[in-house]
Amino acid sequence: MAESTSFGMVNPAIFEHLQAKIDEDAQVREELRNILQILERQVQNTIQDAEGSLSEQVETISKLAAVASRYPYYKYNGMWTRDIQNAVGTSYLPDEDAADSEQCFAVVLCGWLGGSIGEGRGLQPGRLLTIEEVGQILDVPVNLKERDAFHLTIEEYLQSLISLIEELARLAVNSVTLGDYHRPLQISRFVKDLHAGFQILNLKNDSLRRRSDSIKYNVKKIEDVVYDLSLRDLVPR
Question: pTM, whole model, 2 decimals?
Answer without folding.
Answer: 0.69
